[in-house]
Amino acid sequence: MTQNENPASLIVIFGATGDLANRKLFPSLYNLFSKGNLSKNFAVVGVARRSLSNDEFKQNIIKSIGTVSNDVDKMNEFASHFYYHSHDVTDSASYTALNEIITDLDDHYGTKGNRIFYLAMAPEFFGTIATHLKEDGLTDVSGFKRLVIEKPFGHDLQSAQELNNQIRTAFAEEEIYRIDHYLGKEMVQNIEVIRFANAIFEPLWNNRYISNIQITSSETLGVEERGRYYENSGALRDMVQNHMLQMVALLAMEPPIRLNTEEIRSEKVKAFRAMRPIKDDEVKQFFVRGQYGPGYVNGELVSGYRQENMVNPESNTETFVAGKLMIDNFRWAGVPFYIRTGKRMKTKSTKIVVQFKDIPMNLYYKTEQTLSPNLLVIHIQPEEGITLHLNAKKAGQGIDAQAVKLSYANKGVDGINTPEAYEKLLYDCMKGDATNFTHWDEVALSWNFVDNISDVWQNTYANFPNYEAGSYGPRESDILLARDGFFWWPVTNLDVESC
Ligand code: NAD
């Protein structure tokens, strides 16, 4: 094994003809392979309902990785490790046949009995598959066994608990890798480095120096073909319960005593536990929901959510959420964390803005020049980087101050594309590093937080639509901050030139 190489492993991908497998998983595995980060002793069995020959499946693989490569020999070599099994997830005979295939491949490729089961399928099958894997003997291995499971992990705390109980009969907690692909993003992983490796930030990272933190994840797309799924989910369950709260936890957690899975997770869990629960009668005060109506996105007229495919024309489902979270501990008492996420917004952007408190006395008011607050902006996507907003003297006569930005752009500096989140997560899973996956305690605490809000919303009919497609969401979202004397920092692009 070379230094970066993963251990030998056999990967079974359930849902291998689906969108996730083709758009993300195969290209990510190929990137690991072409960078020498995958053991030569690997094999992949794709499992799905459709009937396909091994050769047809290999052609699918070549097509999928054609998006990231044009090295035909390498692509063929990679695809030669792939096999296909047409499978009915509810039928024991199917699992017995699958077990025979992977046992043979284990011998052939020397994968040392190490098995990774990746569930890239609709969540209603997760429990059934895990149960069959155990009952039909696929988890009796001589090496390691791991289960990688996609979101959504349940629909609320109760369903998540049921699902967890079911998969725990077949896999121990440390063998379960719950994917939150935001945790694989370069700049989300960078939050800890920015905080814990810089003397200029960590001493200020508290309620004495920070006035508020804003996390925005906006999309310009609507629900596309996912209307049926989205109707039962909505932005709160689809984005807030997982990605948004994970970012809050990373920003709010205490420094871990070591950079290992247990210590980091333990600090994140404490941050989740410190999030102030929202009572029924407080939901209106702390959270805003929205649903897009028709409007213009990038100059093109698009329909409203209620006119989308597979969506109820009187739908009460939210496509936008803004919220104010309070973290009741010594570090954060009194500092609001504002979160905002929505579909069909004006721009596609995920970013974190940390706003520092104003200096005690502003000498520059006298010159009619108002200082801007210091901001640390972490750009997560599509740009990746950091911008620090400072004040400096305006060049020329006088002592006027002006806002300046110090920017660092990942792509601009390194000249390389950072790896796709799934590439990092697959790599970690093969190595047995679960740091960037969500522990059950985090899942349970975040559902617990969100459930109260969704119960209230489900039982009250909203006056939707309340924001135009192509806007920044409903007016109430601005009012949420204005009541505290703040406003959402405008979504500007990372200024690469100023690096
Ligand atoms: P998809 O509908 O495109 O693919 C589903 C796959 O499951 C197909 O391969 C299909 O053949 C297989 N399948 C369905 N029923 C089956 C059965 N009874 N027996 C055997 N195979 C069966 O779905 P997707 O978009 O790839 O999403 C898969 C999972 O990943 C879902 O949990 C989704 O929420 C999650 N996810 C997807 C994305 C994405 O970008 N597509 C992103 C995040 C999470």
Q: What would you note in describing this structure?
A:
- With 499 residues, this protein is α/β, with parallel strands linked by helices.
- The protein is built from 15 helices and 18 strands.
- The protein has helices at 19-34, 54-65, 72-79, 92-109, 126-135, 157-168, 186-196, 227-231, 234-252, 261-274, 283-286, 410-414, 421-431, 440-458, 475-482, and strands at residues 9-14, 42-48, 82-86, 115-119, 145-149, 176-178, 210-218, 287-290, 292-293, 295-297, 300-302, 320-325, 337-342, 349-356, 375-381, 385-393, 401-409, 467-468.
- The strands form four sheets. The protein has an eight-stranded mixed sheet, with helices on both faces. Strands 3-2-1-4-5-6 form a six-stranded parallel sheet, with helices on both faces.
- The protein starts with 8 loop residues before the first strand and ends in a 17-residue tail after the last helix.
- The model is unreliable at 493-499 (pLDDT under 50).
- Nicotinamide-adenine-dinucleotide binds next to helix 1.
Which characteristics define this entry?
499 residues, alpha/beta, six-stranded parallel beta sheet, 15 helices, 20% strand, disordered C terminus, binds nicotinamide-adenine-dinucleotide
